[in-house]
């Protein structure tokens, strides 16, 4: 007998983000350099569809951030465009507002273009630092004020 759910089952946070990229190795090097992620060897096959490609998985286990960069044989090499169906952006939480300033300085040091830190008060109080990866995927470092 199947029990009918009376409430939503629990979630434990976002596990990973997996974009398809134009050059897996170039993107992996960028994410390692910019976000300090570590590669988990070897590449992961597209389970059940191994002939279509593979993923290179990068992680910072302590921060709970994991990214699987996917190579797909059908990829035509277009940059990401958030105006089309697909990913708009990915936001990574930081523990304090001051961390956004530190990230801006880090990105400056690496020569990674960004929009600077933006502080928003309405309708919610938050701060965000926006930048893009080599495939034009928008990434955000995000701080939500708990007040």
TrEMBL record:
GO molecular function: dioxygenase activity
CDD domains: VOC
Keyword Oxidoreductase: yes
Segments forming domain VOC: 13-144
InterPro entries: Glyas_Bleomycin-R_OHBP_Dase (IPR029068), Glyas_Fos-R_dOase_dom (IPR004360), VOC_core (IPR037523)
Pfam families in UniProt: Glyoxalase
UniProt entry keywords in alphabetical sequence: Dioxygenase, Oxidoreductase
Source organism, top-level taxon: Bacteria
SUPFAM superfamilies assigned: Glyoxalase/Bleomycin resistance protein/Dihydroxybiphenyl dioxygenase (SSF54593)
Name listed for the protein in its UniProt record: Glyoxalase/bleomycin resistance protein/dioxygenase
Species of origin: Geodermatophilus obscurus (strain ATCC 25078 / DSM 43160 / JCM 3152 / CCUG 61914 / KCC A-0152 / KCTC 9177 / NBRC 13315 / NRRL B-3577 / G-20)
